[in-house]
Amino acid sequence: MTKPMSEIAFEQLxxxxxxxxxxxxxxxxxxxxxxxxxxxxxxxxxxxxxxxFQGNSKLSTWIYRVSLNTAISKSQRKRKNLIxxxxxxxxxxxLISNEDAVDEEQIQMLYAGIERLKPVEKAxxxxxxxxxxxxxxxxxxxxxxxxxxxxxxxxxxKLEKILQPCTxxxxxxx
Length: 174
Description:
By secondary structure, the chain is mainly alpha-helical. Helix content is 74%, strand content 0%. It contains eight helices and no strands.
């Protein structure tokens, strides 16, 4: 067990890892209120769990693990009680030039494909897109490096199948 952390030090820790926490929230939630709720739930779980952090991994790895486990659990609870519906993905915050429009469209299609994945698959692909190594992904997710690689390979194939109709549609429209 580590020495209890002051509230100010904890706020600094959350601030330093805010970008990662927001990415987790964005990948698991569409509506801003849900993102805010998930962010708060992650923060609470980090605060509660911090005394049990033993330093067996990097602190950022542990934070990722807590964040993803919280998001997966919340997503599974919500999925049981929610009728599925689709909603347009949030617009890009900045202005998009004509050259960037195609890239932005591809990113939106990728996010729409990721939305159709299971919660654990979303977590794995998020870590992959964040350019974590298979070893780091394994540490964060609590699985072996090899298992992370196998799962990611399967998820990429699944995403290709999900996105295939979109690509076929684009080429037939041209």
